[in-house]
């Protein structure tokens, strides 16, 4: 059986040097990198506030207003130049349909922007987890990307609404033209009115 000696193992100079290096690296991390991590975590927390969701919704609404204002102006000009009375129900109906399309597009854009903001937040949380695990993080989509996507969608939706109005006007014109042609042919074939 063993004798009663001291079971304590002394640290070697190499082990003490490694411990000193590890402590210096830890302090370096706390002083240099931890403030950036804390700031990033605060930024991510701010992404999930009502103020941020309202801000992206507002950014998403701006291009819709702009695109549809252009569509209303162009449609109004086309209807007036085509001889449609601005006080007529057809004129007002066409503008009303554009206004409904604008409202739908605006709501859709605002919702998509807010979902994009939520995705930014989730991506930020994922990056925090990755940092904690010592893994590489990914880029988080910025406001510029959300605004660009909203502007692109607003332009597309305004063009679709405008084209639908023009298609309907062309169809109405074709029907009126066909009716006029039929009436003229009827008069010609029946010897006058």
Account of the protein in words:
The protein has 193 residues and is an all-alpha fold. It is rod-shaped. The protein has helices at residues 13-47, 50-81, 89-132, 143-189. The longest helix has 47 residues, at 143-189. The chain is built from 4 helices and no strands. It has a domain at 48-133 and 141-189.
Question: How would you summarize this macromolecular structure in one to three sentences?
Answer:
It is built from four helices and no strands.
Termini gap:
134 Å
The share of residues in extended strands comes to under 5%
Q: Sheet bearing the most strands, described?
A: none
- Helix-residue proportion: over 70%
Query: What is the N-to-C order of secondary-structure elements (H for helix, E for strand)?
Result: HHHH
Number of strands: 0
Radius of gyration: 34 Å
Mean pLDDT value: 78
Shape: rod-shaped
Number of helices: 4
């Amino acid at each position: 059986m063993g004798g009663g000696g001291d079971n304590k193992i002394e640290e070697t100079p190499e082990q003490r040097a490694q411990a000193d290096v590890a402590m210096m690296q830890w302090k370096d991390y706390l002083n240099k990198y931890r403030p950036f991590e804390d700031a990033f975590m605060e930024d991510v927390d701010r992404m999930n506030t009502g103020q941020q969701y309202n801000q992206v919704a507002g950014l998403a609404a701006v291009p819709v207003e702009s695109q549809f204002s252009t569509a209303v102006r162009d449609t109004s000009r086309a209807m007036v130049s085509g001889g449609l009375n601005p006080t007529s129900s057809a004129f007002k109906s066409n503008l009303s349909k554009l206004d409904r399309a604008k409202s739908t597009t605006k709501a859709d854009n605002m919702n998509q922007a807010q979902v994009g903001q939520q995705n930014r937040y989730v991506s930020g949380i994922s990056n925090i987890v990755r940092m904690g695990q010592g893994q590489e993080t990914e880029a988080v989509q910025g406001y510029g990307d959300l605004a660009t996507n909203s502007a692109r969608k607003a332009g597309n939706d305004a063009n679709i609404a405008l084209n639908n109005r023009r298609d309907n006007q062309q169809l109405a014109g074709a029907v009126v033209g066909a009716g006029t042609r039929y009436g003229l042919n009827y008069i010609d074939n029946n010897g006058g009115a």
